Please model this.
Amino acid sequence: MKNILIIEDDKHLNKGLSIALEKNYEVIPTFTISDAKNYIGNSDLILLDMNLPDGDGLEIIKYTKKISTIPIIVLSAIDLEAYIISAIELGADDYLTKPFSLGILEAKIKRAFEKINSDDLSIYKKDGLDFNFSENKFSVNNVNFDLTRTEIKILYALIKNKGHILKKEILFDFVWGFDDKFIDKNTLSVNISRIRTKLKPYDPIETVFGVGYKWNY
Model:
């Protein structure tokens, strides 16, 4: 059974979430950053409050992403755009502002686990392209290059759906996984352009104008 680490200092909310989720998951309730760090390495998903007694939830996001790729869903009363963007850029997979619907949260948890279960593409090699998504190692004609977290997600989605047009809205959902009103619509095209530059002399990404993108290699 998948387990969910809850990091929430509001005891009533923590208990309520635990009761609601324990019918389908093993639940680990914690109330502080120091307590949570004892369980992160063995957790499958994190529900994270941002205002904690011993620090900011952003600290947990940074700490977790250094040691694991498990999804993090933020549950916070903070609805400031800059703060939400900071959480996402650090690696949060989703962000729900309080108060939130339990049904929506359960749907997002289910989707997060479905993404993990379908995550079967690890290594992609073709001619001069050599990508190892498990180790985040990428090279073109034996020359290594780096990709940002966002670029990796985009490249992964395109390759996994190679030969098929991937609509822009689907890419947005896969890459950012939360309400995209906080993301500039040009962000996707900018990241695609950066990926193309790094893949030269190959040009495997086709732009289907007004629709999306397709991996053709």
Summary: The chain is about 40% helix and 25% strand. The longest helix spans residues 102-117. The longest strand covers residues 3-7.
